[in-house]
């Protein structure tokens, strides 16, 4: 098994989200739309049934709320397991479609891909950020290949998403979003990435990723960083890994 392919024990079938998610879908989402008045473009581009991957730029913590609120169908995304430790935060994140996962690189990243694959194979929609982490300077960073791998492996179409203004509604460090700013959520036309080749091909994954990022860039109109958005290395080994050529997933 190569280092860029999930493998081993298959992911467990996704669980039903339960009452908290139903409450969020039918009450919290409409309330958020009424309060924050997001501009939503391209809702007609979102397939109403079957597996679909929303691939979005990432500017703010609130991005993972903006996409489910704007989407015409339920959307799931992975969130740090620490967000589910307290009852109140667990109810909130469950209500907006979040599923707890251990975040990190290496095996943790592969396990996350397996969970997302299980959701797609169950016919659901998932939201992912190819950049990997939030852009702190507003630029659009290079995409990691995990999203493309999932799309090529499962055959799910990718709907590119351009988020505009979420960093102003809830900047880094803010405790609550402001109502003085409005966000724009743009859904692009679905991408069929199968012409790039099989998921096992590194060239196919890279080509599909570049197509996804080009579509996101056309929607978000951000300045391109032409680099990966790397989390600061915690030790010398991590710093070496960031310098050496390797596939970011």
UniProtKB/TrEMBL annotation:
One of its GO terms (cellular component) is plasma membrane. The keyword Acyltransferase applies. Coiled coil: none annotated. Keywords: Acyltransferase, Transferase. SMART domains: PlsC (SM00563). Pfam families: Acyltransferase. One of its GO terms (biological process) is phosphatidic acid biosynthetic process. SUPFAM superfamilies: Glycerol-3-phosphate (1)-acyltransferase. One of its GO terms (molecular function) is 1-acylglycerol-3-phosphate O-acyltransferase activity. Residues 52-166 form the Phospholipid/glycerol acyltransferase domain. This is 1-acyl-sn-glycerol-3-phosphate acyltransferase.
């Amino acid at each position: 098994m190569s280092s860029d392919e999930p493998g081993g024990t298959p992911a467990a079938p996704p669980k039903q989200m339960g009452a908290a998610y139903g409450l969020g879908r039918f009450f919290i989402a409409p309330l958020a739309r009424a309060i924050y008045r997001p501009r939503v473009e391209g809702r007609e581009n979102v397939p109403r049934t079957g597996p679909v991957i929303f691939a979005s730029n990432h500017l703010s913590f609130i991005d993972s709320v903006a996409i489910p609120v704007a989407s015409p169908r339920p959307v799931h995304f992975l969130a740090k397991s620490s967000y589910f430790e307290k009852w109140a935060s667990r109810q909130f994140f469950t209500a907006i479609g979040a599923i707890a996962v251990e975040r990190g690189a290496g095996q943790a990243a592969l396990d996350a891909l397996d969970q997302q694959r299980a959701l797609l194979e169950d016919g659901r929609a998932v939201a992912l950020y190819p950049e990997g982490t939030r852009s702190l300077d507003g630029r659009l960073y290079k995409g990691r290949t995990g999203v493309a791998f999932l799309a090529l492996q499962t055959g799910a179409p990718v709907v590119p998403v351009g988020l505009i203004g979420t960093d102003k509604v809830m900047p880094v460090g803010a405790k609550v979003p402001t109502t003085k700013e409005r966000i724009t959520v743009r859904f692009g036309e679905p991408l069929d990435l199968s012409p790039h080749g099989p998921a096992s091909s590194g060239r196919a994954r890279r080509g599909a990723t570049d197509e996804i990022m080009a579509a996101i860039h056309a929607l978000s109109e951000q300045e391109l960083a032409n680099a990966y958005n790397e989390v600061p290395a915690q030790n010398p080994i991590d710093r070496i890994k960031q310098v050496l050529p390797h596939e970011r997933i």
